[in-house]
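Predict the structure of 1,4-dihydroxy-2-naphthoyl-CoA synthase.
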Amino acid sequence: MTAIQWQTVQTYDDIIFQRAEGIARISINRPEVHNAFRPKTTFELIDAFSRAREDPEVGVILFTGEGGRAFCSGGDQRVRGHGGYVGEDNVPRLNVTDLHKLIRSIPKPVIALVAGWAIGGGHVLHVICDLTIAAENARFGQTGPKVGSFDGGFGAIQLARNVGQKKAREIWYLCRQYDAREALEMGLVNAVVPLEDLEAEGVRWAKQILKMSPIAIRMLKSAFNAELDGMVGITELAHNANMLFYMTDEAKEGRNAFLEKREPAYSDFSKFPRRP
Ligand code: S0N
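Done. Here is the predicted structure for 1,4-dihydroxy-2-naphthoyl-CoA synthase.
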């Protein structure tokens, strides 16, 4: 298999955003701090994920970190201020919440490729992704209670869905670190591969997904989320049903009747069956 030829889509300071063969590759590029994120990193990630979402050529997104020693080490503790992480505008914020929601709802599978550390808020990022492939050098864990932080959102709730309540509580309460083999055993990751094979394996999984029906994959992601995401999850599933309904002649009859200013009762739905 020839190596994939990534093309840069957009240039950023803290991340790399590339695309090739229907796959987007978004990578945190701050290896000097194990790919910790500052507000700027998160804003750039939100921008890249949004572009990948809107790009009809992209069917799968690979999310990774540069350097081979870390996926992400969470929030950059050097800029943690009073009430959030402080950016160039001097405002403390937790804009990572918006990134979580975006990865969660983007109607395309997001695969985390984890080499080295996935820790703290960096661990949460891989938990939110649809799938995780780990390199043999990967190490996983939460640090919140050690460093005065916690994530009671997806970082706790989705984690418990992935590995079970007891294990999730252990991960958070004890702040231990787990190697790739332990992560696989507890269902925290989908596969473990040698470091040098990580990206190729991610591309292989992505290409397999790309052969599938995009709408089937979209509906499945939305259904997996809906069970957990309450009204927001049901709304996404319902709006996906809208998308499908808009593709029918029945829905188009309603639009046509309005545009044609038909009177007196606009639409004629009589020819459409009332299915059992
Ligand atoms: C990852 C660790 C264990 C690696 O240890 P190792 O291999 O000994 O390397 P170090 O020498 O420690 O690290 C190399 C250089 O990288 C710097 N660095 C590492 N992590 C960070 C970081 N998070 N912030 C800033 N710098 C970092 C080191 O300082 C070192 O630099 P130099 O060489 O200059 O000294 C180890 O590094 C470690 O434990 N790191 C910290 C992990 C951590 O506690 N992360 C923060 C946890 N909290 C969050 O992420 C909160 C996130 C958040 O914003 C949030 C808030 C509310 C709700 C949700 C979230 C969410 O994101 O989920």
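The mean pLDDT is 97.
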